[in-house]
Amino acid sequence: MTKKIVFSGMRPTGKLHLGHLVGALNNWVKLQNTHQCVYSIVDWHALMGEYENSSHIKDYVIEMALDWFACGIDPKRSIVFVQSDVPEHLELQMVLSCLTPLGWLERNPTYKEQLREITTRDLQTYAFLGYPVLQAADILLYKAHAVPIGEDQLPHLELTREIGRRFNSMYKTDLFYDCEAILTPTSRLLGLDGRKMSKSYGNTINLSDSPDEILTKVKSMITDPSRMRLKDPGHPDQCNVFAYYGAFLPDRKDEVSAWCVGATKGCTECKKILADGIIEYLRPIREEREKLAKDLSYVKEALKNGAVSARAIAVDTMSDVRKAVFR
Ligand code: TRP
Q1: 278 with 305, same domain?
Q2: What is the DSSP string of 78-107?
Q3: pLDDT class for 225, splitting at 50, 70, 90?
């Protein structure tokens, strides 16, 4: 039986951090065992938000590929490519944009939230409103069955289904079918300061951080606010440091929870153990990343080959799209 197709993408807007690893990449790596995976570094999507500062995108594309490959995304088993290397994404986006009602985009909760919250960049643009149309094109171009994404992306997936259905009914075809979300089971890790982990808050631990940087960062993490002194009993379920144990040191959870609740050992010790745990967890990733970074030709070649494979599928879909539209 042929494997079902998984598609997902990430915007190259900076180095990847632990939130990406636990929230997405670990899952993407596993899916390679059961699905034909297609993973795209979506640089056009990055441009929609970063068009005023676009000169970094090129470097971030390479950083992202290094992070992905070091984590176990395998370009021999999966199709890994850069979105702008496959022009059919923009072609399909154009066709889909013709039949996407403005109201669907204006009502999109992600759009409204970002316009409200992101004040440092001007996102009142034509392309940014159409962000989900390009995302729909990404997914539909490969006729993906499943899309691993975070919960915040669910409205975009719903729009993808609606756009695909509208295309089918308008042009009397069954070219596109509904795709389902694969939500990552693990809980989200918060940043060092207890807010959402994000580059823009400067509260991340990056996959490429050195052991010293990791130790310094973990030491700065905010713990249970009601535990000021060693003899105050702590509340592991309210402590962000403890949440990290779940992801990186599950075997030590019971032990540290007992110390914390029993107020026998302090947060400094707890953090030291966690820092060592994260450093060990990231060691193979860091080593592989350094190896790949020494000679970028492997990474560049892999992306080039990925684009050739992706394009073979994309050209095929676009040919069916043209037939359906200009029948
Ligand atoms: N919008 C996604 C994000 O910000 C990135 C993305 C672009 C994507 N195209 C996609 C994710 C297609 C899944 C499928 O995270």
Answers
A1: no
A2: SEEEEGGG-THHHHHHHHHHHHS-HHHHHT
A3: confident
